[in-house]
Structure formats: C-alpha cells, structure tokens
C-alpha cells in the first residue's frame, strides 16, 4: 500500500491548490479558523503547524505577527508555502510530524495538527507519542489544537463514494473502505490531457480514532480539553496545558 507521504507527494500535492479552490480561498478559510481559536497571536507568539501543507494556517498566524515552524512531508507543498508566505515569518521544514521537537529550541505557545492530519499517523502508539510531545514542548497555558473527522460510524453503500471537486478538466472522487481500526482512502482522479482523459488511482490508510479516547489521552497528559465543531464536518479539540 502507498504510504501517506508518497500518496500526498505524488498524487494529491500536484493538484492540492485546485482541490481546495485556490490559495486565496484556502488562506481565507484558514484565517477564519485561526480567528475562531481566539489565541493571543502577535509579536512574541510562537507556533508549530504539523502537516502544514502549503500554509493554510501557518501563513495567517505568521501574518498576524507570530513566528511559525511549519512541518510537512511534501516537498512540493512546502515549496508552494514558500511562494505564498510573501515574507511572513514561517520556517518550513520537511520532516515527519512526530519529529517536531527536534526543530524547536524553546517551548512554544501553540501546536496545531489540523485538517484530519492526526489520522495520518501509523498507529495508536504514534498518536500517544504526539500527545506526550505536545505536552512536553508547550509553554504553560499553551494550546494544542487538533481537528479530525469522526470515522467511528462507517459509511455504507453509495455513501462511501465522496465527490471532492470537479471542473471541465478534472474530476476527483474519494472512496472509503473501512477496516477495524483504520479506513483505506482511495483517491480517484480523472484528468483531461492533450491525449484525452486519463485516470489515476492511489490509496492510503487513515486511523479510525475515537474522538472521546483522544480527548481522554490529552487530559491524562495534563491538558484541559474543549470540543467544538470545526469546518467541513471536522471536530476540533482545543487542549490547553494547565
């Protein structure tokens, strides 16, 4: 099976800006998400964005005056971030998101892992490690913000086919295949080229995390946790280090 990193780098990253409706739309959505968190962002504030992509959240935070370490496995998405940041103080790092403590020189004010990124981790042990590392590297009162999709109830039949986006030259559809502790995501891209329509298919595995269990892990690590609705049907957990 294709790894998550390979799936994004070779299948989704080349069309990612198109998939989310263009950079300005994505950055506007990211800015609204950051504003909703009501974090004290400004000069002197620091943040880490795990699975940052092309900077949907990292760039708005940096534009508000904070310094940001943005980590992703995709070289292509990080190059796009460099093009879009326009001098905003974002340090882009290509690495596994679990390696983020090695890229910090001091405790940070906020750690973001948004857009269902946490479900890309390989297993429950990796999730527990991420929670522990977040607790260890945040300042007191700092925030660990996670947004993810609730896969606890499997979709059935035709509901497993999810249209993502289409226009005159592209059609992207997602198909979900549920397993006991994970869901296999098949991304099917039809694209019009000079030689006619082509089809590319790639798939990878996501964890089926129980949101209540994740919140309990955060609480055990010393966080006070608040749950709220996120964008596009995601659930947002805001964990504050006591």
CATH top-level class of the largest domain: Alpha Beta
- Radius of gyration equals 18 Å
Our count of domains comes out at: 2
Helical content stands at: 25-40%
Query: Segments where pLDDT lies below 50 for 5+ residues?
Result: none
- Straight-line distance between termini: 40 Å
The count of strands amounts to 11
Topology (SSEs and partners):
Blueprint (H helix, E strand, L loop, with lengths): L3 H9 L3 H4 L3 H15 L8 E5 L7 H6 L3 E6 L2 H10 L5 E5 L13 E6 L10 H14 E11 L12 E6 L3 E9 L3 E12 L2 E12 L3 H10 L2 E7 L5 E7 L1
Parallel strand pairs: 1-2, 1-4, 2-3, 4-5
Antiparallel strand pairs: 5-11, 6-7, 7-8, 8-9, 10-11
What keyword list fits this structure?
242 residues; alpha/beta; Rossmann fold; N-terminal domain of TfIIb; 2 domains; 7-stranded mixed sheet; 4-stranded antiparallel sheet; globular
Describe the structure.
It is a single chain. Strand 2 (67-72), helix 5 and strand 3 form a beta-alpha-beta unit. The chain has 2 domains: 4-150 and 210-241, Rossmann fold (3-Layer(aba) Sandwich); 157-206, N-terminal domain of TfIIb (Single Sheet), CATH 2.20.25. The chain is an alpha/beta fold and 242 residues long. It contains 7 helices and 11 strands.
């Amino acid at each position: 099976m294709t790894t998550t990193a390979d799936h994004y780098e070779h299948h989704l990253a080349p069309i990612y800006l198109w998939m989310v409706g263009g950079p300005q739309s994505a950055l506007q959505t990211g800015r609204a998400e950051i504003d909703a968190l009501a974090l004290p962002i400004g000069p002197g504030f620091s943040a880490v964005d795990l699975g940052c992509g092309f900077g949907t959240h990292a760039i708005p935070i940096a534009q508000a005056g904070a310094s940001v370490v943005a980590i992703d496995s995709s070289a292509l998405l990080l190059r796009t971030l460099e093009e879009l940041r326009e001098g905003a103080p974002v340090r882009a790092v290509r690495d596994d998101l679990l390696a983020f403590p090695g890229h910090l020189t001091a405790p940070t004010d906020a750690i973001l892992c948004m857009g269902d990124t946490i479900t890309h981790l390989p297993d429950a042990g990796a999730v527990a490690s991420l929670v522990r590392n977040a607790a260890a590297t945040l300042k007191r009162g700092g925030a660990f913000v996670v947004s993810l999709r609730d896969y606890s109830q499997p979709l059935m039949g035709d509901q497993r086919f999810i249209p993502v986006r289409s226009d005159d030259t592209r059609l992207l559809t997602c198909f979900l295949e549920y397993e006991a502790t994970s869901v296999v995501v098949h991304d099917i891209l039809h694209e019009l080229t000079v030689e006619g329509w082509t089809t590319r298919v790639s798939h990878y595995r996501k964890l089926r995390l129980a949101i209540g269990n994740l919140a309990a892990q955060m609480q055990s690590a010393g966080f006070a946790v608040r749950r709220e609705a996120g964008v596009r049907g995601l659930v947002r957990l805001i964990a504050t280090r006591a």
